[in-house]
Every structure is written in C-alpha cells, then in structure tokens.
Amino acid sequence: MPFKALKYGDDISTDLIIAGKYTKSLNVQDLAEHAMEDLDPDFKAKAKDGAVVVCGKYFGCGSSREQAPVALMAAGVKAVAAKSFARIFYRNAINIGLPLLECDTDGIDDGDILDFKAGDDFVLNVTKHARIPVRPMPEIMVRILDAGGVVPFLKKHGRF
Amino acid sequence: MPGSTLAEKILSTHAAKRARAGDIVVCTIDLVMGHDANGPMAIKAFENMGGKAVYDPDKVVFVLDHMAPAPYERAANLQALVTRFSEDQGTHCFGIGQGVCHQVLPEHGFAKPGTLILGSDSHTCTYGAFGAFATGAGATDIAAALFTGQNWFKVPETVRIELDGDLAPGSSAKDVILHVIGAIGADGGNYMSFEFYGPWLNRISQADHMTIANMVVEMGCKCGFICHANLGIAADPDAQYRDIIRFDLAKVEPGVAKPHTVDNYAPVSEVAGLPVQQGVIGSCTNGRIEDLRIAASILKGKQIAKGVRFLITPASRRVFLQAVEEGLVTTLIEAGAVFFTPGCGVCVGTHGGVPADGDTVIATTNRNFKGRMGNNKASIYLASPATVAASMLTGVITDPRTITQEVGDAL
Ligand code: SF4
C-alpha cells in the first residue's frame, strides 16, 4: 500500500515519540493525540490518513514504553522506516503488529510516496522510482507480525 | 567449541540448549517485574491473550514507583488496577513509598546470579550488578512472560570493557559510566551485552556496581555484567568477544552528559560556571545511601545557593530510613533540600519537580532527553552526586574538586 513519507532525523527517543506525562492511559486515542508532538506539532494532521515515518539511525531509543509504537499506530502510522532501531522499540513494534523497515533512508525525502508490504525485503520509493532493500527480520518476528502481533499469536498458539 | 560469555551461559541454561551469539532461543524466565507505568498495559495484553492465571505468582513482582503517590486520577486508577491484579493473582507487590523497582528488587533478594529477569522497564539491566541476565521489555513481552513463563531472545554478542587502574579523588562510578557512554555512543552497544572487568570493581561498593550496570542501556545494551570477584558467576576464560575496549580510570574526571543526549559527554570543567535552577539527587542510578552521604558531606552546615531548588528522592524506604538514622535528612533539609517519596520521583516527569521553560537542571539520573522531566523547554545535565551537591552550593555547575579540601577528602 502506498503512503506518504514523514521524514525526521536521527536518534528519535521514546520521550519524543510520546512524552512520559502522556503515557498514563490505556486508551490508545489518548496516546495518538500526543504522538511526536514535541518534534512536529502538526504530526497528528499529517499522519491521520496513513503515513510512513522515516528516520535516520537509532529510532526509538530510551525507555521501554510500548506506548511509543502504540501511539504511532493509533495516529495512523502504517510503518516506520529507519537505518536502525533501538532494541526494545523494535520488539515492541513487532509485538503490536506495526511493521518496521530497516533500510537506508538517505534517499527518501519528506513527502515521497512509499509502497511496501510487511515482510518483503524491499520498499519502493514511488516518487523517486527507487527500490530500497530492507534488512530481513528473524523468522519468529515475521510469524508474530503475520499473526498481527504477540496477543493474537499467543491466543492462537498458546506458546512461542 | 569456544566457551560462553555470561549472556550465552545464562541463556543456555534457560533454553536447555547451547545458546551462541546470534541464535534465537526460547527461554524460561525466573522473574517478571512490572511497574505502575507499563504494568497496566501488560495486564491488559495478558488478559487479551486469554490469560487467567499468571504462570507462577511467586516469580512475579509489581512495584508502584513511577507516579507514587498518584498525582492525578488516571494514575491512581492505573495503580489500583495493578494492585487488584496482584492481589487476585497472589503475586508480590510493593506499594507506594517502597521505592524504585531497581532498588527494591535487589534489597529484597530478587536479583540473583545466573537468573533470567524480564522487567517492564529499560533499566532492568541494573541487576547485571548481581550477575543476572536482566533486560527491559515492553508491555506485550511482559504479558507473554506472565502468560507462558517464557519468551524468545536473540542471544547478544558481548563486548569486554576493561577498566584499568584507579580513579583519582573526586571522581566516582557515575563519572566512569558517563565517560564510557561518551566514548562508545548512545547506540554503540545496541543489541549487545557488555561485561565490565578490572581490579577497581573489587574495591568499590555494590551501590557503585549498580550505578554502572544501570546505565548500560544508555548505550543500547540489552544487558550488562559487573564482573567483580563476588559476582557468583563468571564467563568462560575462552569465551568469544566481539570487541575489547579499554579505559584508563586515572583519566576519568568528574563529568557531565550535556543536553539532550546521554552520550553528549564533557568534563565538568568545560561547563563549570553555567547557572542552574534545579538540582536532583535520586533515581535508580544514584539515589542510594552512599549518594546521600556524599551530598550531606558537601552541604553540612551550609546553605544551597539562593534561587535554586534542590530535590532529593531516596531510592527506597530502606535508604530513606537509613538516611534519617544517620542524620543526613536533617543535614540536607537544613541546607535547603526538599525530599520526595521514595520511588522514581523527578526522573521521568510524571510526578513532581517539573522544571520551568528555559531552566537548567543538574541531576544524578540517567536520561537527559528533551522533555524527560516533563518540560521539553528545559535542559538537563547528568552528573555524579558530588557534582550535583557542589552545584547546589554555588548555583552554577561546579567541579566538586574545586570546593574545600575537607570536602575533597570526604569524597
Ligand atoms: S528512577 Fe527513572 S530511570 Fe529509574 S526506573 Fe524510575 S523513571 Fe526509570
């Protein structure tokens, strides 16, 4: 599915994705309200109809708050593309069924249209006519993502 | 076949098969920790999985620390949810005022060598000071562990950090780890395990071991181990390391992490003289009795500078009581400090102690990201307890070695 790229920089921390003061809710819409707001006050409007967040290295560094990928997904984000991800964010995103694209993001500009399928080993930059290789995920993560996250996965299989 | 690193060894025993760096293994978990910030989401995910009873209530600990006592109704309701779940399931639960999880668990004997611990908090790596493979996970991973007693792990590669020589007076374990993070970078250890070695580790306190282990996640590490003589577990002598990195402790000065990343290191001398509006001693990094003693030794019989706020959160009730008994609380309150309920306190901005726009804060905590303390227009410098206390005395960032000789001797 093609979506617009929203491009940000390196080392985006979970505090920037969603500040600690807003994480005290189990309602995902409350989280979506404040996703990325310290970084981009217009994020909510931009992501509403679906978008791919595109960043440099080490996206999602910092705390273990799962509210970070949950907030992004609830805000309309369909995938995150970055040169690298912080470990806990990576697991958390897959666990809730948010696809991640670990790839060279230098050639992607803000507003480019990206087309991808979760689990594929490439993403298409439709605007630039470029095919960007994506680093493959461990098999167990592919299975979890296919199931839609760990909750449906364990509901179905009962164990890892 | 070469021997095992500590990470490989512990994951092997919990996977019941040889686990080598790069492998993906499903492991049985010895202890699951959840707190009031991420625990509720884990409980909800557990229930959504179809969970009825946790796999072993004796291996589950909840701690209410991140917003304790509750500052508003949403927080109170989330804490009530955790308390109720814990009562229904018969798990361990430490309520408000008991302290920050990473202090409370070791104090109550939950951090043991060779065990595998999963916590809903990125600083769960602190238990590497006690020889546990301990790592932070998100709510759904915690739920999976509550549900199945297991989770899957990618076995990390390991880097050996060799700390040679000894520290000069005035420098502390916090200065060492800030220096190491500055050199290695905030993502220099992403996905890895770090094993720290060196004779100095046998001379310092358990509190110092915890300060170092606490901050390995600030380099992206999955876990870390402070390999002192009494750790209770050791890597094989022929284990394979990705890298060996050496540091000369004699060169470690009192340091700071400048805003807004933990690896933005500078010696204190470079930023000395910068006015601060708030000082913070506390958190799972540096809120222990040893840290309060240092602060009290610097501030005894003195007053903090006019216009600064000095906020202290003892890491646990035990620490608080000990500080009361030793007279440190009196000394520090007389000097102008304000005490908070043991727990996370000011560290994560969900509670009291939020700085104003444009404020500069100097703190013994472990993160200085924009917005960390609840205001993205404030700047946070991370430093040792001695540097924070010295800066409170003067109102500007101060190298603790520059204040009187007697204090220097006490450090
Ligand atoms: S004291 Fe700070 S870093 Fe430690 S667990 Fe609490 S919020 Fe996290």
Account of the protein in words:
The complex is a heterodimer of chains A (160) and B (411). Chain A is an alpha/beta fold and 160 residues long. Chain A has one domain: Alpha-Beta Barrel (Aconitase, domain 4). Chain A is built from 7 helices and 7 strands, in the order E-H-H-H-E-H-E-H-E-E-E-E-H-H. Chain A has a 7-stranded mixed β-sheet with strand order 4-3-2-1-5-6-7. The longest helix of chain A is centred in the middle third of the chain and has 9 residues. Chain A is globular. The termini of chain A are far apart. In chain B, the strands form 5 sheets. In chain B, strands 4-3-2-5-6 form a 5-stranded parallel β-sheet, with helices on both faces. Chain B folds into 3 domains: 131 residues, Aconitase, domain 3; 95 residues, Aconitase, Domain 2 (3-Layer(aba) Sandwich), CATH 3.40.1060; 156 residues, Aconitase, domain 3. Chain B contains 14 helices and 18 strands. Chain B is globular. Chain B starts with 5 loop residues before the first helix and ends with a helix. The longest helix of chain B has 17 residues. By secondary structure, chain B is α/β, with parallel strands linked by helices. In chain B, strand 3, helix 3 and strand 4 form a beta-alpha-beta unit.
Q: Strands, helices and their partners?
A:
The complex is a heterodimer of chains A (160) and B (411).
Chain A: E1 2-7, H1 14-17, H2 28-33, H3 43-47, E2 51-54, H4 67-75, E3 77-82, H5 87-95, E4 100-102, E5 113-115, E6 122-125, E7 130-133, H6 139-147, H7 150-157
Parallel strand pairs in A: 1-2, 2-3, 3-4
Antiparallel strand pairs in A: 1-5, 5-6, 6-7
Chain B: H1 6-15, E1 24-28, E2 31-35, H2 39-48, E3 60-63, H3 73-89, E4 92-94, H4 101-107, E5 116-119, E6 133-136, H5 139-148, E7 150-154, E8 158-164, H6 173-184, E9 193-197, H7 206-214, E10 223-226, E11 243-248, E12 255-257, E13 265-267, H8 268-271, E14 278-281, H9 283-286, H10 289-299, E15 309-312, H11 317-325, H12 328-335, E16 337-339, E17 360-363, E18 379-382, H13 385-394, H14 405-410
Parallel strand pairs in B: 2-3, 2-5, 3-4, 5-6, 8-9, 8-11, 9-10, 14-15, 14-17, 15-16, 17-18
Antiparallel strand pairs in B: 1-7, 12-13
Helix pairs in contact in B: 2-5, 6-7, 10-12, 10-13
Bound molecules: iron/sulfur cluster (SF4).
